[in-house]
Amino acid sequence: MTAPVFVVDSLEGVGPGSVVDVQGPEGRHAVSVRRLQPGENVVLTDGRGRGAAGVVVSVSGKDHLVVEPFEFPVEPEPSPRITVVQALPKGDRGELAVETMTETGVDAIVPWQAARCITQWKGERGAKALAKWRATAREAGKQSRRLRFPEVADLAATKQVAALLGAADFAAVLHSDFDHVSEPLATAELPAQGEIVLVVGPEGGVSRDELALFEEAGAKACVLGPTVLRTSTAGTAAAALLLGRTGRWS
């Protein structure tokens, strides 16, 4: 079992001979929930690619531990970088999608208000939902022992998604309409580096107007296989396929 991961605001200046105080919610989780004791190993990260693996030196109160790092791993910028544009699912399936995509290794997630989305992010409700997605990515990043957590962007409109696709080195819309001219994602030509952007539509599918706009921006309509996946699982399955094909899982 690898050492548990805890998030700190910054690891700037942390090196051999340093000690790091972990307090607040992360300290409380380490001390009161995980019940860590001096001598146990932990990994600290800023969630932006830097880490500090070390040993717990002391524990005090309910939310304070001191860590002495002895290794300083760095998770480099991934290449190619994989972004998933995720249409808003119903209920808590959005958090499920974010959780599993984070565990799989997606680098960025863009929530999308598609035409056929039943869920609407508006006002305070939308702000709370976005905060939940970001908190889910953070917790899943820790759980999966990542040092570089995926960025969860602000809610995007369809035109913003089209602009993102137009700037990508490879862009695909996962499409479940088998009558539409689509190619298998498993055989699509992929770049060795740069930006890959995938669009996952809502349960009702990507509308014709949206698909036309995305294809005009340079995206390909692609199918994953002979079955239709739910919107909350399609991004994870597609990302796993691409991570294997690009060599990031080799």
TrEMBL record:
Record's keyword annotation contains Transferase: yes
Class of this enzyme: transferase
Record keywords: Cytoplasm, Methyltransferase, rRNA processing, S-adenosyl-L-methionine, Transferase
Catalytic activity: uridine(1498) in 16S rRNA + S-adenosyl-L-methionine = N(3)-methyluridine(1498) in 16S rRNA + S-adenosyl-L-homocysteine + H(+)
Record flagged with keyword S-adenosyl-L-methionine: yes
InterPro entries from the UniProt entry: Alpha/beta_knot_MTases, PUA-like_sf, RsmE, RsmE_MTase_dom, RsmE_PUA-like, tRNA_m1G_MTases_N
GO biological process assignments: methylation
All residue ranges annotated as the Ribosomal RNA small subunit methyltransferase E methyltransferase domain in the record: 78-242
Pfam families: Methyltrans_RNA, PUA_4
Localisation per UniProt entry: Cytoplasm
Domain of life: Bacteria
Entries under CDD domains matching the protein: RsmE-like
A GO molecular-function annotation: methyltransferase activity
Major subcellular location class: cytoplasm
Family: Belongs to the RNA methyltransferase RsmE family.
Function field: Specifically methylates the N3 position of the uracil ring of uridine 1498 (m3U1498) in 16S rRNA. Acts on the fully assembled 30S ribosomal subunit.
PANTHER family: 16S RRNA (URACIL(1498)-N(3))-METHYLTRANSFERASE, RIBOSOMAL RNA SMALL SUBUNIT METHYLTRANSFERASE E
Protein name in UniProt: Ribosomal RNA small subunit methyltransferase E
Species of origin: Streptomyces canarius
